[in-house]
Amino acid sequence: MLERGEVANSWRRERWDSLRLLTPNWQSRLPGLRYEGPDPDGYMTMGEVTSFIERFAAVSHAPVRTGTDVTSVRRSGDGYHVATTRGELACRAVVIASGAYNKPSVPPFASAVPGSVEQLTPFDYRDPAKLPDGGVLVVGASATGVQLAAELQRSGRPVTLSVGEHVRMPRTYRGRDVLWWMDTAGVWDQRYDEIEDLTRARRLPSPQLVGTPERATLDLSVLTSMGVELVGRWAAVRDGRALFSGGLRNVFSLADLKMQRLLDTFDEWARTDGRDAEVGPAERFPPTPVPSSTRLQLDLGSGEIRAIVWATGFRPDYGWLDVPALDAKGHLRHEGGAVGSPGLYALGLPVLRRRRSSFMCGIEDDAREVIGHLARYLAVPG
Ligand SMILES: Cc1cc2nc3c(=O)[nH]c(=O)nc-3n(C[C@H](O)[C@H](O)[C@H](O)COP(=O)(O)OP(=O)(O)OC[C@H]3O[C@@H](n4cnc5c(N)ncnc54)[C@H](O)[C@@H]3O)c2cc1C
User: Fold this and answer.
1) How confident is the model at residue 381 (pLDDT cuts 50, 70, 90)?
2) Type and span of the H or E element at 371
3) What are 162-200's pLDDT values in tens digits?
4) pTM over 0.90
5) What whole-number distance in Å separates Cα of residue 47 and Cα of residue 12?
């Protein structure tokens, strides 16, 4: 196992200070290792996640070579030639487990933002003190965007949040964590080959969730009540002005509708599975309030906005992969983890083999199946 940094590198280096997992502790499971602490319904801090993964590396005796950056993987004979910063390797099979979130995605028009406005990605951000005083424009309203918008607003900076398509979720529903419902009702068991629009499922934004000791919901209604100003999707920069799409009402009602459908699925499951007595009564949440007027543009040179935080998603980095296996958008083409090159496999990608694959707890089933395929491949002499 080759790792360019240390064990749990992404959790150590690429996350902000206040972040906690949005998945509850009982769900933090790796093959043969479960959370056994006193707070199964809590959410791990970054320090706790790092320790958990370090413990897994130790108990599983994972043969990790840290500080080893893979700079090239190419086909060679009936296997692969792997170049690293610590020498070269020849092997018959390669499993790509380099993660789906190696680089923040930032739209190209970021280069047209005036130089007087500081720009950060979630990889640069650690805490509000990293930003200048004054207004902040947070772009993107998925898990990262809503969490950073709330933290920055609490720090006393006026926050404007640019909102596009998003996934609204209450933290708890009928007294249980919403992810308990996803898990128990089988939503996450849905397999990749049963999903109608797999490309879309793999690109779906993360849900608006935060892990806090209070198990608080953090959606657009909460942010509005905190004083965060909502604007539409950022479409372009023209003459130093940020131009936002209108139609927030439609964006909100779509997210409300999808949440409603999800809650209906949970209710239906609780009824048919005889669980109604185990959980609280069905709940319905008010629609996201639409602001009476929304700004369609913002003068970035006026001094109102001092910093922009791009919470516009992450993408993988396969700059080192010299095998033609990427699609036009730079994503790995694979069939449930089998990449279309003999002996080349992937793990740890969103909806790789089932919806659960997007989360840490998805690895157990995925690894068993992908490694089964790999073992059968290796069993045939090359
Ligand atoms: C902000 C954020 C919050 C998240 N919150 C949750 C959550 O609450 N719960 C949850 O279950 N999941 C969460 N996830 C998803 C979670 O990150 C993934 O499920 C998990 O990290 C996948 O593990 P991985 O080992 O496949 O990938 P990663 O954790 O990304 O690890 C990939 C490793 O590969 C190394 N690497 C990359 N390229 C090379 C190279 N060329 N050579 C050598 N080494 C290389 C990296 O250094 C890294 O250590 C979150 C993701 C993000 C971005």
Assistant:
1) confident
2) helix 363-379
3) 999 999 999 999 999 999 999 999 999 999 999 999 999
4) yes
5) 8
Task: Assign 301 a pLDDT band (cuts: 50, 70, 90).
Answer: very high
Report residue 105 as tokens: 């995605």
Q: 339: which strand partners?
A: 334
Q: How far is the CA of 310 from the centre of ligand 1 (A)?
A: 19
Rounded to the nearest 10 degrees, how much is the dihedral formed by the CA atoms of 228, 233, 234, 236?
Answer: -160
Distance CA 89, CA 98 (A): 17
Give the confidence band of 27 by pLDDT, cuts at 50, 70, 90. very high
Q: From the CB of 348, is ligand 1 less than 6 Å away?
A: yes
Q: Is 322 in the pocket of ligand 1 (CB under 6 A)?
A: no
The DSSP letter of residue 122 is: T
Helices (H) and strands (E) in the chain, counts: 8, 23
Report the C-alpha gap between 251 and 290 in whole angstroms: 10
Taken in order 47, 133, 165, 335, is the CA torsion positive or negative? negative
Of the candidates 162, 160, 180, the one whose C-alpha atom is nearest the C-alpha of residue 170 is 180
CA dist 223 and 136 (Å) reads: 14
In 3-state terms the chain splits into helix, strand, coil percentages (rounded to 5) of 30, 25, 45
Instruction: State the Cα–Cα distance between residues 261 and 239, nearest whole angstrom.
Output: 42
Residues present in the chain in total: 382
Ligand 1 atom with minimal separation from the 211 CA: 8
**Gap from CA of 129 to ligand 1 centroid (Å):** 26
Task: Determine the residue of 359, 361, 363, 364 to mutate for testing ligand 1's pocket, defined as the one with the most ligand atoms within 8 A of the Cβ atom.
Answer: 359
231-265 burial by CB neighbour count: b if 16+ within 10 A, else e?
bbbbbebeeebbbbbeebeebbeebbeebeebbee
pLDDT digits (tens, 9 = 90+) for 304-357: 999 999 999 999 999 999 999 999 999 999 999 999 999 999 999 999 999 999
CA-nearest residue for atom 20, ligand 1, is 360
Measured CA to CA, the distance from residue 6 to residue 305 in angstroms comes to 37
Q: Which positions ≥6 away from 82 have C-beta within 8 Å? A: 2, 70, 72, 73, 88, 89, 90, 91, 94
